[in-house]
Design brief:
The protein is of the alpha/beta class and 315 residues long. It contains 14 helices and 8 strands. The structure holds S-adenosylmethionine.
Length: 315
């Protein structure tokens, strides 16, 4: 059975990108192809959509959809978006593009597949890589990183106040035998977190630990910073960049990047004359991030935490 998927904030993404016949866009996070297909239809046969995903299964599934719908203006690239410029160069494409969209994190299809190890609701192997060739495995982090390294990522990437006790419990448990299943992590969380804390939380108690491990496995924050930096030289004048994030760490990176690149000088305020020579390259489109409508949140739970930020290239 084909997995049904509704792209988050699709209408809002299209409203920002305003795709026109013959234009070229990059979808850095293909997933189930919701944005890619909509953009491909809007730019028509003379346009081009270049779509990246680390996950070969996502690429394969969308390839089939494209062929089924006879859409021929999409180039699918099974690579990390952190390799954006290099991968485009290999295809003889150096830009400029009319827009770039990033819909971060994991897809509903990845979450729904217990074998991918992303889910705390279904037991699966401890593997949270978006695709092969990820810098490290989740199992390596859980079974070999020191207690202090574990505490650090659970606190910084999961924003989990119980990072210390969780790291200690993971280290204690793996002394007997390696931790290999997601269920074991969920058990640790349930043993460590106080019932009152769990009862107060709006999310599953393992959400923060899983988020931390996924970010560390895939180096998500480093990849995001890298793709944002590369995006500037790939956009045409007035080209637009849209980023949809699902937690505050990613949102902060996008927000600060847009803020920095929309300023002419980055010198400390006490400097009488600019010494950095920095020039604004972006104009922020929305001061505050767009959120999904109540109607969308009601039908698509993933939309609840989505934040959309957008900016356009100055010239
Ligand atoms: C939220 S989904 C995208 C959903 C998509 N907008 C749609 O309409 O179906 C995010 C996708 O980005 C991919 N991804 C995450 N980090 C990546 C990276 N660094 N490079 C390439 N793909 C990445 C994931 O494998 C996942 O398929």
């Amino acid at each position: 059975m084909e997995y049904q998927h509704t792209p988050v904030l699709l209408k809002e993404v299209l409203a920002v990108l305003q795709p026109q016949e013959g234009q070229r866009f990059i979808d850095a996070t293909l997933g189930s192809g919701g944005y890619t297909l909509a953009l491909a239809k809007a730019v028509g046969p003379t346009g081009l959509i270049v779509s990246f995903d680390l996950d070969p299964l996502a690429i394969q599934a969308v390839r089939e959809k494209l062929s089924h719908e006879n859409i021929q203006n999409v180039l699918l690239i099974n690579d990390n978006f952190a390799n954006l410029t290099e991968a485009l160069k290999k295809q003889g494409l150096e830009g400029p593009f009319n827009g770039i969209v990033l819909d971060l994190g994991l897809s509903s299809a990845q979450l729904a597949d217990a074998n991918r190890g992303f889910s705390f609701e279904h037991d699966g192997p401890l593997d949270m890589a978006f695709g092969p060739g990820s810098p490290r495995s989740t199992s390596e982090i859980v079974n070999h990183w020191t207690e202090s390294e574990l505490r650090h990522i659970i606190r910084d990437y999961g924003e989990e106040p119980w990072a210390g006790p969780l790291a200690r419990a993971i280290v204690r448990r793996r002394r007997y035998q390696p931790i290999t299943r997601t269920k074991e992590l969920v058990e640790i969380v349930e043993q460590v977190l106080p019932p009152s804390y769990i009862a107060r939380s709006r999310h599953h108690p393992a959400t923060k630990l899983f988020q931390a491990l996924r970010i560390a496995t895939n180096e998500e924050l480093e990849n995001l910073t890298s793709v944002l930096n590369q995006s500037l030289s790939l956009l045409c004048s007035h080209g637009r960049i849209v980023a949809i994030t699902f937690h505050s760490l990613e949102d902060r990176i996008v927000k600060h990047f847009f803020l920095r690149e929309s300023k002419d000088c980055l010198c400390p305020p006490e400097f009488p004359i600019c010494q950095c020579g920095h020039h604004a390259q972006l104009k922020i489109i929305y001061r505050h991030p767009l959120r999904a409508s109540e109607a969308e949140k009601a039908v698509n739970p993933r939309a609840r935490s989505a934040k959309l930020r957008a900016a356009s290239k100055l010239n």
